[in-house]
Amino acid sequence: MRGRGFQSLLPCSVSYEPDDSNGVGDIAACGMVRLNLILLFQDDFKRDQNHVHVEGRRFIHILEVHRASVGDELCVGVLGGSIGTGTVTDLSQSAIELEVRLDSMPPPKLPLTLILALPRPKFLRRILRSACAMGVRRIILLNTFRVEKSYWQSPFLSNDSVKEQLLLGLEQARDTIMPEMLLKPLFKPFVEDDLPGIAAGTLPLVAHPFATRACPRDVKQAVTLAIGPEGGFIPYEIEKLKACGFQPVQTGDRILSVETAMPALISKLF
């Protein structure tokens, strides 16, 4: 686990440009879904800070999905920076030129730290994409007793794969700020050493299907929310979380999957 146990996978200041040269990967697999925001990267600014040159996957999307032509305006935003509009000034067979006006801030992040027991790899991408689109400020993937060890070896946990999903979430939500992303493959050291500081000054909650307290609504403070794996946290894990001040809460009589419970809980809280 040495290679994946680093403290910060995606700090908020990350500078990332996907490989637009071949147009493959999960971003390209979005098919005919119209992007709500065309993300720009510093390398796109070839001439000055008001003009960008876009090639590859984003160019194909602008051409085939938005069907843009010279004079059209698109919603654009610089990764880690402002959002605004981009006016098409030139089109070629391989690239598009935009004159950009960046005059707005991206939507604010939710004051939420989301702690997730590492989901099944086939669900992980959708969960990361949704969490990012909903504006989660920090995402922590955690090992628990019911998380299979093989999940930590999944290629979907690679830096590039995770970044792809977070970028898709940003494009969906018209956001430009990456959430902080942490991997924690050891439960006990994380809960005993790191979690008290992370949860300090927040409302710490743990989703538990057999809790008696309902999830609070419209919370007006920062929240640290822990969601377990399929089958939930085991009693030992619940007790360790409660020792850190976490209050067990539930969403109702129905037992929800992780990918359903996460947006349901966030929507209630904020």
Q: Judging by the overall fold, what is the CATH architecture of the largest domain?
A: 3-Layer(aba) Sandwich
Shape: elongated
> Which consecutive residue ranges, at least 5 long each, have pLDDT under 50?
1-33
Structural class: alpha/beta
Could you walk me through the main structural features you see in this protein, from its secondary elements to its overall organization?
With 270 residues, this protein is α/β, with parallel strands linked by helices. It has 2 domains: 31-104, Beta Barrel (Ribosomal Protein L25, Chain P), CATH 2.40.240.20; 110-269, SPOUT methyltransferase, trefoil knot domain (Alpha/beta knot, 3-Layer(aba) Sandwich), CATH 3.40.1280.10. Helix content is 26%, strand content 24%. The protein has 6 helices and 11 strands. The protein has helices spanning 56-64, 121-133, 159-173, 187-199, 235-243, 258-269; strands at residues 38-40, 51-55, 73-78, 83-91, 95-104, 110-117, 136-142, 180-184, 203-207, 223-227, 247-249. The strands form 2 sheets. A 6-stranded parallel beta sheet has the order 8-7-6-10-9-11, with helices on both faces. It has a 5-stranded mixed beta sheet with strand order 1-3-4-5-2. Helix 2 packs parallel to helix 3 (159-173). It is elongated, with a radius of gyration of 20 Å.
